[in-house]
């Protein structure tokens, strides 16, 4: 089925203090194979990939590349061995142009005397797009001004620019809309054709079953089993990942639109400088209204405009409960409107400060003041209560956000808003980068909030998520509303993709 073994790992171990991240991990990767790693957050998947890519060293064990001992000292060393990686968290220098980021650390090849030719760098970056069949990227633009999806595509070009024999993708598709996901899928096919190999992590099990040839399941730092994709199922994978059957409904069980008549927020012919064009809709009390579309569709702009972070050039965003126009984010906050952005690390959470500070930040105006100072006792109680309520796994609320897994970061990100008495929750890609267990938990929390009457705008790049959770779905294309589909009409992925393209 596949070619010869290209990479072999034998009893790889890695510890961080008292945490044993990998325990005697062994696997073989063949030429022409797309291998997925599956498991809950913290099971050791990313640690293993980081060791293969030279980001971490191994405490013990041996890796072999093409039959020879392989001990990468750094990612650049791995590059020299034709192994490249895209990590889950963004790894670009914000102050540099996109094209410079592609060849960062390898710019000497473009030197003429003491000077580096940026023109040659941009030309070489564009050649990579042509070589691999990737969509256009403006390589002269500063990276800081690009959204998370464009930055991920730049990281992809950087990984491909070393002409890798092994490409490692750690949660790449979770940042991408459907059209750019299709770019990744075609790239995997090209690697198979070239008899090259891919190691990847995706917490979307449906996607994993679709794109991988084989799946290695990990739990608590150890390999549970490796299975052929065509011979396993979604349910079997979940059981291997968590060590038990996952009971209960993953998505909503009902098949009807369930909400009240009262309108909470509405867009009235809203256009923006970013590309929204005459967008109109209304969302009702207790409704989950989802937005889906391709990368340039404008769905993420809807969330920003709804919260007042983006001002309309024409039309109005109305908070109908008070018959007031949304002016800015502070106005939204004071009207119990919450916004959870797609890029939680850069746009939502304060990564270098404590879990407690992140929990209480949206509620600072509501915390008691004593002689002008906030009550530390109340802050501590609020944070500990929220930690327990939303099952955040950490040693202490005084730990920094950087110490948490992606799933636990998102629990804090959601929990700090849901602890408030909200009128509307705007939530953009709520399950990006979280495992199947946390995904199920987030959907449960959303269901419970809906039952209590909370209104939600759900913006998502995952069609199955929209179909599973929404009362109604608005499909957008080129900044315009193309269709609105109700739950009772039985959502069809084919119908939504047809409207998108």
Give your account of this protein's structure.
With 501 residues, the chain is of the alpha/beta class. The protein has 17 helices and 24 strands. The strands form six sheets. It has a six-stranded mixed β-sheet with strand order 6-9-10-3-11-12, sandwiched between helices. It has a six-stranded mixed β-sheet with strand order 18-21-22-15-23-24, sandwiched between helices. Strand 1 and strand 2 form a beta hairpin. The longest helix has 16 residues, at 178-193. The radius of gyration is 23 Å and the shape is globular. The mean pLDDT is 90.
What is the gist of this entry?
It is built from 17 helices and 24 strands.
Work out the oligomeric state of the chains in this entry.
single chain
Characterize the overall form: globular
SSE class:
alpha/beta
Topology, number of strands: 24
Instruction: Tally the helices.
Output: 17
Question: Roughly how much helix do the residues carry, as a percent range?
Answer: 25-40%
Extract low-pLDDT stretches: none
The radius of gyration computed from the alpha-carbon positions, rounded to a whole number of angstroms, is 23 Å
Q: Summarize model confidence as the mean pLDDT.
A: 90
The largest sheet is: 6 strands, mixed
* Strand line-up across the major sheet: 6-9-10-3-11-12
Could you give the distance between the termini? 35 Å
**Per DSSP, what share of the residues sits in E-state strands of 2 or more residues?**
25-35%
